[in-house]
Amino acid sequence: MPRNDQGDTPKNLSQQFYKKDCIDYLNAVEYDLLHPEDEENLAFPAHVAAYNGDLAQLKMLIETGVVSVNERDDKGSTPAHKAAGNGHVQVLQWLVENGTNLRIVNSAGETPKDVARRFGRLGCIAILGGDS
User: Fold this and answer.
1) What is the CB-side half-sphere exposure of residue 7 using CA atoms within 13 A?
2) Distances in whole angstroms, Cα of residue 24 to Cα of each of 39, 56, 66, 98
3) Which residue ranges of the chain lie beneath pLDDT 50?
4) Residue range 9-39, pLDDT digits in tens
């Protein structure tokens, strides 16, 4: 974990200044680093393609009818959620142009726009209608 000149980590400073949202975010990042096996479920190939920004693979899966543009994974997320969360603007744009339902919420109650906002993916937020 990075430290500032005084030796403080981001988590230390968040705790010191009672920034619960920052602490929660840092805990989630820390968990992801310690548990990479939980990161992506390979049973959902369209989601993996969207997550990785692999537009060619995603197009092939959807255009050949292997999966739906609105297919949901075990956490209720669509490929749009995955693309938005990882900042894959071209993938997200293609999904929007091909009729993805941007109102679908995942098991955390988030739309693709909410996911983009949580991860600060400004390009994706713009595609999804701006920050309103």
Assistant:
1) 0
2) 17, 35, 37, 35
3) none
4) 888 888 888 888 888 888 777 766 676 555 5
